[in-house]
Design goal:
The protein is of the alpha/beta class. The protein contains 17 helices and 18 strands. The strands form 2 sheets. Strands 1-2-3-6-5-4-9-8-7 form a 9-stranded mixed β-sheet. Strands 12-11-13-14-10-15-16-17-18 form a 9-stranded mixed β-sheet, with helices on both faces.
């Protein structure tokens, strides 16, 4: 039985060409991701190593140059100019194209993570994993799931060097005394590293990639993650400041769907986002201030926690607050106090169903009292179906406070649910609390709301038809809709592309 090519495409990163072949090999239990590089002769490799050592000696690289994306680009330009000059002297027989290729390879080895730099630019990958130096790297493909690669790391020391390099850029260290590290690359990609013997088979490095092009509501409708009817309902809730917690398992798409929904925030609202690592990306013209936490330095000083940022954000006059993830009781209490003082709040939570999300919120360690939790209106649950390789909105439930003489309670009303056997999202009950809140604060009637949702659905269907997938363009059209609804609807109905 021969190998079958599932997918094949080319990449060019910093003038370095590479070919990706994803193959179903009869000798492997999972597909194999083959990354094919330009072949370098032994004599050329020796010359490259000599040039690399000279470059590292000549160029004094300050940590802030690698930490700042702008400074890193300047550094790359300088590095490229000097290496091409050296290559002309050391290897005069090379063509201009080959000099650029070798210069790019040198740059990846000296300023980056070697061949991993190519993987970081492959938009089909979400995760890159090194388990140890004895086994190949693994990658998580957005459509095919986990794939084994043909790339290996030279030794355990190389993995440590990659991790230490990432750590130095953000002012943290990974050592035998501190064998765990959580950090991020200049691009926003999140990195986690562990050292032997904590990871008993060898040093590890896990990189979760920051989306180069954020998913938009158009992508999610097109992929079937949610329907345009459901997206229109969610647009209405975001517009009228309904508080939403997005729950789901690991890598179910919680942050991605939250990011897509925040494009529906009106442009005259001030937004503060709080995260451990930057994942939220909003349209550039929105009134948005992103805040990120900071780990302590090697002396244990300078730590900035999510709680610090959350408390501080309330002094920044926000209209909307986005919190990356609810984890601890103190953070959650401040968050729900913010809701009760008139701020609209959006966050994520690890839970597989709306009921499980509710139980997590009211029990330790989060332990929110029902009186505070009653200010949350909606829980949206994301689900990742590993067997079929799809992500879906599993359910949307609203929290309905119930009054009692001794204690206040909460009931869950599930409005939408995904029917797995039909791969279809269905409305299974009417919304009571959410619709009543919108009517109370907007003055709209049931007919007004129904008409508004249908108009929003028209625009969303137009997005899909015209493949409007750029986050800034989606945000601009939504903002124009708030300013001049009739004009936007007129253009959509005429089928005129904006």
């Amino acid at each position: 039985m021969s190998s079958e090519i599932i997918d094949q495409y080319k990449l060019v990163i910093d003038d370095v060409p590479a070919t990706v072949k994803i193959v179903r090999d009869p000798n492997e239990f999972v597909p194999v991701y083959h990354l094919i590089f330009p072949r370098i002769e032994t004599a050329t490799q020796v010359a490259l190593e000599s040039i690399r050592e000279k470059m590292l000696t000549e160029m004094e690289i300050e940590p802030e140059e690698i930490l700042s994306l702008k400074e890193l680009e300047k550094l790359k330009v300088e590095f490229r100019e000097k290496t091409i000059k050296m290559l002309k002297e050391e290897l005069p027989h090379l063509t201009e194209v080959n000099r650029k290729i070798l210069s790019g390879i040198l740059m990846h080895q000296s300023l980056g993570l070697g061949p991993i730099e190519i993987l970081l630019q492959d938009r089909n990958l979400e995760e890159i994993v090194i388990n140890n130096s004895k086994t190949p790297l693994w990658v998580y493909h957005i459509k095919l799931g986990w794939l084994k690669t043909n790339i290996t790391v030279k030794d355990e020391n190389q993995i440590y060097n990659y991790a230490a390099s990432i750590g130095r850029r953000v002012g943290t260290q990974i050592t035998n005394l501190n064998p765990l590290m959580d950090a991020y690359l200049t691009s926003g990609d999140r990195a986690n590293a562990t050292l032997f013997p904590i990871s008993s088979t060898g040093n590890t490095l896990t990189i979760r990639k920051f989306a180069r092009r954020p998913w938009t509501i158009t992508d999610f409708i097109e992929m079937g993650t949610l329907s345009s009817d459901l997206a229109a309902f969610l647009w209405l809730t975001i517009q009228y400041e309904i508080n939403v917690v997005v729950a789901g398992g690991t890598a179910s798409g919680k942050t991605s769907i939250l990011n897509a929904l925040t494009c529906f925030i009106p442009p005259n609202h001030r937004i503060i986002s709080i995260e451990d690592t930057r994942e939220i990306q909003l349209p550039k013209f929105l009134h948005w201030v992103p805040l990120t936490t900071r780990p302590p330095n090697p002396e244990g000083k300078g730590k900035v926690t999510m709680l610090d940022l959350l408390v501080n954000s309330l002094r920044m006059r926000p209209d909307r607050i986005i919190v990356g993830e609810i984890r601890r009781g103190k953070e959650a209490q401040v968050l729900f106090e913010a809701i009760n003082t008139g701020h609209s709040v959006y966050s994520t939570l690890h839970a597989n169903t709306a009921e499980e999300a509710y139980r997590r919120l009211v029990n330790p360690p989060i332990d929110i009292p029902p009186a505070l939790l009653g200010s949350l209106q909606l829980i949206l649950v994301m689900h990742r179906d590993r067997r079929r390789g799809i992500r879906r909105v599993l359910e949307i439930a609203e929290l309905i406070p119930t009054s009692a003489l001794k204690a206040m309670g909460i009931e869950l009303n599930t409005i939408f649910r995904w029917i797995s056997s039909e791969d279809k999202i269905t409305q299974i009950s009417n919304s009571y609390r959410t619709m009543n809140d919108i009517k109370l604060y907007s003055g709209m009637s049931d007919d007004d709301i129904e008409k508004d949702i249908m108009e929003k659905k028209e625009i969303l269907d137009w997005f899909v038809k015209n493949k409007v997938k750029d986050i800034h363009k989606v945000g601009r059209i939504v903002s124009e809709y708030y300013r001049n609804k009739e004009e936007v609807l007129r253009k959509v109905r005429k089928g005129k592309k904006k």
